[in-house]
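REVIEWER CHECKLIST
Item 1: Sequence provided? yes
Item 2: Single chain? yes
Item 3: Sequence as submitted:
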Amino acid sequence: TDCVCLVIMLPKRLACRRIVSLSASVHGDAQCIHQRSFASSAPGRKRRTRQVSFLTDVEGDAAYFDRFVENSRILCFQPASPNFDRTKSGGKISTFFPYNKQVAFRTDCSMLVYGGDVCDKGGSDLYILRQLLSLQHRYPERVHLLMGNRDINKMRIVPEMGTDHSDDNTDGDDNRDQRLPYHGGCWWLAGTGLDGDPLADDKPENGTSKVPSNSPAERLRWI
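Item 4: Structure as written out by the authors:
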């Protein structure tokens, strides 16, 4: 059994006056964290227990994610009808969900906090993302998703790699670097002299970036 200290910021309407206990238990490879708390002891109000499940750093590992849900006392899988429609609901969330099961809550007074790092080398990034987003879409006030470093660095791909709109590349692949966005370097590399140092002596000429950019593949590896 591991001891875990967890601080969760809840909306005022969900916040409880007294936190009674925090316990963590490990089931196989899946760690479930439950926070038991009670509502205000105002006259006429019944005490209510709220359980919070904390999950983090799945990093694309579908087997780990499934074990967590199956061993959880708060979450479970329920049957779902695969939906291959890629239109968006309300202009925000895609309804595309090609799976025959979906994550759900066992009770109506529990919550999930995801601590970040959905994506990485596990190979099932989209499966886990869709499961978490589907759960949040169904229970927006009970699912809280935090972003980790492995999630945030994926956000760099679009602004630093750009989008190639040319289907007929008449110049050949040798000039593909010209379509990469200009990159002025990273502040955390300032003064190091490494690729990406924004204070490097060599000033950019003709829009040349301060990071490796002779090909999309090299830029992506640098990111």
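Item 5: Key structural point noted by reviewer: The two ends are 38 Å apart (CA to CA).
Item 6: Recommendation: ____
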